[in-house]
Amino acid sequence: MATSLKYAVVERERRFLLRSLPTGITETFEIVDRYVDGTRLRLRRVRAADGSVVHKLTQKVRLAEDASQVACTNFYLDDAEWRLLTQSLPGKLLVKTRHKVTRDGDVVVVDVHTDGSMVAEIDGGDVVPVSVPAWLDVIREVTDDERWTGVGLAHSIDAS
Fold this sequence. Notes:
Layout: E1 9-18, E2 25-36, E3 41-48, E4 53-62, E5 69-77, H1 79-88, E6 91-103, E7 106-113, E8 118-123, E9 138-141, H2 150-156
Antiparallel strand pairs: 1-5, 1-8, 1-9, 2-3, 2-6, 3-4, 4-5, 6-7, 7-8
């Protein structure tokens, strides 16, 4: 069955394991993800620095063999919907702090996980990004490594 992109946004990303957090942070968010067991669904709570909270139910469908191209569809939830779904759906938790870094015309997000690991994501918009900012202190690229996807990390750094 073909994947409908009618309501989805296509994410084309590369991911990199980092040695250190770069300078140039413009925004920071606390994110709690619950990857729903046996599905392609994720419940996400995002808390901004000002204390505002957004709740989402997300479906991610791969468009390629690896996780470099994903159709992402979000549903925004109110507090009652969030409570009902988080209490009803079993899953693995991943807690992280997301830093948006804007530097030299590049925008990169860096997730710092509870185990201290740091993963940078570079979204290429309409194409898979080719260039990597020289200021990123990259250990290695992990785009094709399932252990460094959100669900892979949730299973290895489970916070529930």
